[in-house]
Design a protein that fits this description.
- It is a single chain.
- The protein has six helices and no strands.
- It is mainly α.
- The radius of gyration is 12 Å and the shape is globular.
- The termini are far apart.
- The relative contact order is 0.17.
Length: about 100
């Protein structure tokens, strides 16, 4: 899955992030997926970046973790998109909670 997150095709990156999000929602996922997802927060395709934020949110809730680097990356994405990315807000809340 991590390989698909770095694919040249934006639709494959999006599908990989969405898959990780849904897997985490049903209780499957690992901490090792957070770093590749963080990298996607700066993706030039906004849908890919939002999918990555959603996946981080789901993983944080599933794993009950809070990664400081994820919070910094999500805050950076919020600034980039002028605070319109609701997935980032949820993810930050999950990481702090």
């Amino acid at each position: 899955m991590d390989q698909a997150l770095s694919d040249e095709d934006h639709s494959r990156r999006w599908v990989a992030a969405m898959t990780l999000r849904e897997m985490a929602r049903i209780g499957i996922g690992s901490r090792s997926s957070i770093l590749p997802l963080e990298r996607l927060l700066d993706d030039k395709d906004r849908q890919v970046a939002e999918a990555a934020a959603g996946a981080i949110n789901s993983l944080a809730l599933h794993l009950k973790i809070g990664e400081a680097s994820s919070v910094r990356a999500l805050n950076s994405m919020l600034e980039k998109y002028e605070y319109r990315c609701y997935q980032c807000a949820f993810a930050i809340g999950s990481l702090h909670g």
